[in-house]
Amino acid sequence: MKRSRTYSALAAALVASAAFGGVRLADFKGDLAAKVDAANKANASVVAGQDGWLFFVSELRHLSLGTFWGDSAKAVSKATSPTRADPLPAILDFRDQLKKAGIDLLIVPVPAKASIYPELIDSGTMNSESSRLDAADAEFIGVLKQNSVNVLDLVPPFLQYKKDHPDQPLYSKEDTHWSGYGIGLASDLVAEQVRKEAWYVGVPQAKFTTQTAPAKVTGDLVTFLTGAKPGPEDVVLTSVKDDKGAAVQSWRQSPLVLLGDSHNLIYSVGGEMLAVSSGFPENLAAKIGFAGDVVGVMGSGATPARINLARRQDNMAGKKMVVWCFTVREFTEGSGWAKVPVIKAGQ
């Protein structure tokens, strides 16, 4: 623990003095805090950025905060109980449960939209891999790695993709979730890790077909707007079908569990998730040759998702890996991080 506090103090000192295209981290956080305060006073859940981009207030609040774990957690978290404010103990507990059962854990925190496209909410601000505007998230990922937790940090590859493909946004303008391009990149990176697992070679492979095409969707942030609302947004999605031309289904017997929030459901299950067969689970399946066992929830990907896993009461028999994918705002803006006995001894 002493090592983590030392790491935290050093990282905080470094990022506090860093400049980002002429804008200091403190200025960025202060600007976001002011926007959040104004939105709260107006009872608004959305802040309009440039070029029709919309940003979720709770996500902006998360980015405006500093350290959100350890002794700082209770002061900044919106958890329903102070005992659930700190995400670190719950994450380490879940990691330990899985490890004892011989199951690997890969955490995939989805970056805040404003951390990848800060210039669209705070003019003139740019993020970079070496001087990150999402400094607290980057620091926490470092703490997790120090504690031997496998984490896929999406910010560096997302920033590089943004630079290389400026016309392929990684997020929807009108939605809180990643875009088809974001799903494509994230599924590439997760697939790369899955294929390195020793158990992977023993999983029967299936054939999938993919088709990339434009679509029109109206994102979830539009529903929070009052007054005039923008029309549907043009997006590009990659749909995946099995060898019979049917939608890819969640595979209950899969060795791979896809756990988390609606980033596992968007463009996948239809309805308010906007499309079918074009989400993260389907695109990942096409790249690894088999479908995952999807345990995604519409709300919090932290505690409720693990509760759903525990309700199966099977101690995750036959599972080899859990990919835990959720938005970074869950660290501070959700109902909290409880320890959940997913795998019970003696069963």
Provide a quick synopsis of the model:
The protein is an alpha/beta fold and 347 residues long. The chain contains twelve helices and eleven strands.
| Separation of the first and last Cα atoms | 33 Å
- Please tell me what the overall shape is: globular
Structural class: alpha/beta
Total strand segments: 11
Describe this structure in words.
The protein is of the alpha/beta class and 347 residues long. Helices cover 35% and strands 16% of the residues. The chain contains twelve helices and eleven strands. The protein has helices spanning 2-17, 25-41, 57-64, 73-76, 87-100, 113-116, 135-146, 155-164, 180-194, 280-288, 303-310, 330-333; strands at 19-20, 23-24, 46-48, 54-56, 104-110, 150-151, 208-217, 233-242, 256-260, 293-296, 321-327. The strands form four sheets. Strands 6-5-11-9-10 form a five-stranded parallel sheet, with helices on one face. The chain has a two-stranded antiparallel sheet with strand order 1-2. The radius of gyration is 20 Å and the shape is globular.
Features:
alpha/beta; 12 helices; 35% helix; 347 residues; globular; 5-stranded parallel β-sheet
